[in-house]
Amino acid sequence: MKKLLFVLLFIFFAVIVGYQVVKSRFAPEYHGTKELSGLQANSEVYFDDFGIPHIYAENELDAYMTLGFVHAQDRLFQMEMMRRVGSGTLAELLGEDLVDVDKFFRTLGIPKHAEWSTEEWNKEGNTPWKAATDAYIKGVNQFIENGKLPLEYTLLGTKPREFTINDVHSIVGYMSFTFAMAMKTDPLITKISRQLGPDYMKVLSVHTLPEHHVIPNNYPNRNTENKEIIFEETLTSLLEKLPVPLLEGSNSWVIDGSRTASGDVLFLNDTHIGFAQPSVWYEAHLEYPEFSFYGNHLAGVPFGLVGHTRELSIGLTMFENDDQDFFEEQLDPNNPNQTVYGDAFKPLITRLESISIKDKDPIEFEVKESVHGPIMNEVIPEIGRLTNNPVASWWVYILEPTRALEAVYRMNHAQNIQEVESAVRLIHAPGLNVMYGDKAGNIAWWAAAKLPIRPEHVNSKVFLDGTSHVDEPTGWMPFEENPMSINPESGFVASANNQPDTLSNGTFFPGYYYPGDRWNRIAKTVSSRNDWTQESIKSLQLETLNENHPITAKSMIEAVENASFGDFESAKNALTNWDGNHDLESIAPTVYYKWLYHTLHGMMVDELGDADFESFLKTFLYIRSVPTLIQTEDSPWWDDSSTEKVESRSEIIKYALEKTLSELNDQFGSNTEKWAWKNAVVLEHPHPLGAKKPLDKIFNVKAPAVSANEESVNKLAFDLNGTGIYQVKSGPAMRIIIDFANVEASESILPTGQSGNLFSPYYSDQAEMFATGKYRPQLMNESQIKNNAKGTITFTPKSD
């Protein structure tokens, strides 16, 4: 026994020592002195309780170079993943499983567009945003050269190449690709339109319905000089291989002083992004003479896409506008290298792409482009199954070089609302709702995007005719006609990925908008009182209630009113009395979502097939169409086309109920108290290497169960499925609250932690706080930061 005890103690101490040795090699450093080549004067970084760097520098370039170093120290591997997605080089690092993903992004044109943007960037003269970006890149590269690289590189047997401006443009391209809703949705809608017909289409919410909630516009008077303000397999399965999350949606609302207890503006933002480890946003606070900014940064981007000074704040949600059309071309029967266009032909432009693959020989493939854009048949399986004709992607983003870096730099350095709007104008794609509030009492929302003018007959959700110019956009709307609201009488602005109201030119602009459930809850709640505070508004940001789900549930109960719930009458009672809250102890969501899945499956899988049905569940079309689909009695979807008889609505819903109760009994037991929502919900933040076992146990971050939901303000989304276990896939990538009565007391939270380095104490320290609805400070007070710092690094100029 003594020998065994000795051996166990030896193993225990060996593991401890081994861990410390490994940690010392790979862990980020938050103390000490470091030299940076090119630094003009000393800069200091103070790390707070949550690892957020507070950078104090003597000048702008030193601040951004310092930011580049500390950003890379915590998030280098995330930068690696994001630049490889945008440049189509994932397979080179992660192997042949990612070849199809690289093909997709190269065909779509993001790497080509990044190179074009870089060419134009290099032609531009000296500008503050170029100098700041170059300084940031120098800081990143000095960490790559001299810092302790994260463990992931050792496990993959590689080292990072230097970071470049083209990498930054590739990352911007990844962000612009966002949620790919047109590519997920338009082929499916085209299939339904062509193969099933108008009776099936009219039950779907392809376009915004009258009962959906729209964002009201409030255009400023730009001609009145005495105004205070004057304004100048399936694509789905392929994308699941991505090692970085996609932007999904977001909420933001800004309340003016007429509705707050302090009389100052309250600003809130929570961007909805796929959950991952590390989480998307990296927080950093920069101070140098005449500049003070606290920002949320994408990996590899020097400027905060979301952030605030002591005078103003900017936030984002996805606009969800339709900026991508698909044109079905017709090949010349005598020459397959050109397409029919009017009375003539247009040549297909071909380029050869080479993809490097880890441990394999490189492969080459051809990309063809018509007059409308790249041909997508081979990289979007749904298109290839639908037609043999070439289908081209016309996408606003790749039509001109991006000026996103200039735009965000200008927003970070803006002094007032006019300067922010001037910067917003530079964003041509992706469509973003830019939210604004300031100390002077102004609130604003602008839809930032270059909006095409389409012919009136065009339905942009189905494949268009590529054989002529008839379906093509005819021009662009001026920015002044974009959706926006400036200082409205309502006392607030809000966006939640829903449809903007009719524009000033009379256009109801198409998009992939959500039905407005979240926006309606925000609008009703904010309007209900005039004494909001930073503390009281948290209940709205954390709310998990949806008012429409109980209506759908009750309509399903009414459809089977003669059917018995048997031993599970308590489940019926729970659904009947459900207010739409997704409380963890409630059983109503557990029953509702499984019953809804089986109902929709019974309705649609015979027409769509399993693959397209699963794709449907991952589109905006599903969210928008459920109430109409479930409540329409005479819908053709109810009939099971695989049988001779004509099934009714009640039959399909009743069969789905029987299946639901049986499966829940098998899954959780006969005691319905065990059907609590907390037992059906799983939240785990996946790391790129976590896809390979047992690395998931090492790198992924598990969190407590959260109140998963569809379209509540605190949106914690999951894929509807028949298993009855719901993996939360996306949600708030941060929750920010700022009261301009005391900006230094602003609060936020991240889903996991500030650092992406496994050995950092800040790797997952916010995960439980996030899951349980807690916040922590966004510090800007210098004495508070310096007196309570958990670590300090002094950067000094390196003598060359």
Automatic annotation (TrEMBL):
UniProt keyword annotation of Hydrolase present: yes
| InterPro entries in the record | Ntn_hydrolases_N, Pen/GL7ACA/AHL_acylase, Penicillin_amidase_A-knob, Penicillin_amidase_dom1, Penicillin_amidase_N_B-knob, S45
Q: Does the keyword Hydrolase apply?
A: yes
| Alphabetically ordered keywords of this record | Hydrolase, Zymogen
Assigned protein family = Belongs to the peptidase S45 family.
Would you tell me the protein name for this molecule? Penicillin amidase
- Record the organism: Belliella aquatica
Q: What is the lineage of its organism?
A: Bacteria, Pseudomonadati, Bacteroidota, Cytophagia, Cytophagales
Q: Gene of origin? A: pac
